[in-house]
Each structure stands twice: as structure tokens, then as C-alpha cells.
Amino acid sequence: MILDYLTYGTLAVVVVLFLSSAIRILREYERGVVFTLGRFTGVKGPGFIILIPVVQQMVKVDLRVMVQVVPPQDVISRDNVSVKVNAVLYFRIIDPERAIIKVSDYMAATSQLAQTTLRSVLGKHELDEMLAERDRLNADVQEILDQQTDVWGIKVTTVEIKDIDLNETMVRAIAKQAEAERLRRAKVIKRAASRREACRGRPNARAGAAGDAAALFRGAARHCR
């Protein structure tokens, strides 16, 4: 009697283990890349899936849009300004088979590729272009990444450059240059104002002394050029 209970219990455990290793349920945004005896045999899901234990293995793939932060990169612009740039990358898997078979770790590979592409693209532009034309740079980086990750079954949907940081020395140099430009413009405005005042007074004085209306126009033309 005891042996019968042990036998039934053992069989029950075996059945439970078999079912737990054979049955898979994939969500709507998941797919399963199935390998039979090591060979790729298809992509399954979503829903209820049955695998042959030991013989078949499955790798789950998430099809939702993924967000990856590109860490700060040291970039030297075309006009030899050193800046730190970071970005955010949005991508999704469109071909689970290639994402698993063509690259060992698509997350790490995409991150490394994004870093090198960001440095390469921004290094071709001057600092003013980086600051003023960020949308165009985003599009350039996204296009290059999308072309290169296509072989991995990955679609890069968006790249957003977050911050472009200058070192303290460069910030002080730019501030000094801006202050010098402000002073130069102030001097130009002051000089122009003085010339306008001279234009208003000198011709009138000369015309009054000569009593000649023509002298008024000649003086104005000579002093207000």
C-alpha cells in the first residue's frame, strides 16, 4: 500500500515537472525563438505554447519599444572644442530570429554602436551647429544606427541628444568673448549716437554763419556720411 502511494506520488511529480517544462504562455508583446536539438525551428507566440522537454529550448524576446541611455561621450567638434554629450535611444525588435541568432547580446551591441555613432556624427560638426541644429543631428544619428542595426532585426525609432556640456575653461572663454562683443557693440552704438548729434548741430551752425541755405546741405552731406 505504501509502495503504491510512493509510486503515484512519484508519477505525479514527474507529470508536474514535465508539464511545467513543456508549457509556456507568452504575452501579447512576447515571442519565443524555438530551437530543436540546437537548430532554429521557428518563432512562436503569443499565447499557449508546448515544448518538448530536453529536446526543445525557447528564448523569449520582448517586442515593445525599449529605452536605452547612452552614457556621456567625449566629443571633439570640428572647430576643436571638447564637449561631453549624452543621448537617449529608443528601439524595438522587429525580427526575433535575427535578434537572437545574429548577435550574442543585442542590448550591449546596440549601446556600443550608439556610442561610437554619436561621437562620429557630432565630431563632424562645429559647436554652434551642435547647439543650434540638434534636431538634424538627432535624425542623422538615428538614420545611421537604423541602417547598421537592421541586420540584427532591430528598428531604431528615435534618438534624442539630451545634454551638450562644456568644460569650465571653455565656458569662461565663451563668457569672456560674449562680454567683449557686448562692449564692442556698446562702443559702436555710442559712436553712432555721437555722430548723429554732430550731424544735427554742425550744419545748422555753419549755415547760420554764412547765411546761405546751400551751405546747410553741403555741411550735412560732409559730416553725416
Could you write a compact summary of the structure shown?
Helix 3 crosses helix 5 and helix 6 (168-210) runs antiparallel to helix 7 (213-223). This protein is α+β, with helices and mostly antiparallel strands. The protein has 7 helices and 8 strands.
Task: Reconstruct the topology from this structure.
Layout lengths: L1 H21 E4 L3 E7 L2 E6 L2 E4 L5 E7 L3 E11 L5 E12 L2 H6 L4 H17 L4 H6 L1 H16 L4 E13 L1 H43 L2 H11 L2
Antiparallel strand pairs: 1-4, 2-3, 2-5, 6-7, 7-8
Helix pairs in contact: 3-5, 6-7
Description:
The structure is a single chain. The protein has 225 residues and is α+β, with helices and mostly antiparallel strands. It folds into three domains: 2-61, no CATH class; 66-166, 2-Layer Sandwich (Tetrahydropterin Synthase, Chain A); 171-223. The chain is built from seven helices and eight strands; from the N terminus they run αβββββββααααβαα. A three-stranded antiparallel beta sheet has the order 3-2-5. Strands 6-7-8 form a three-stranded antiparallel beta sheet. It has a two-stranded antiparallel sheet with strand order 1-4. The protein is rod-shaped and about 125 Å long.
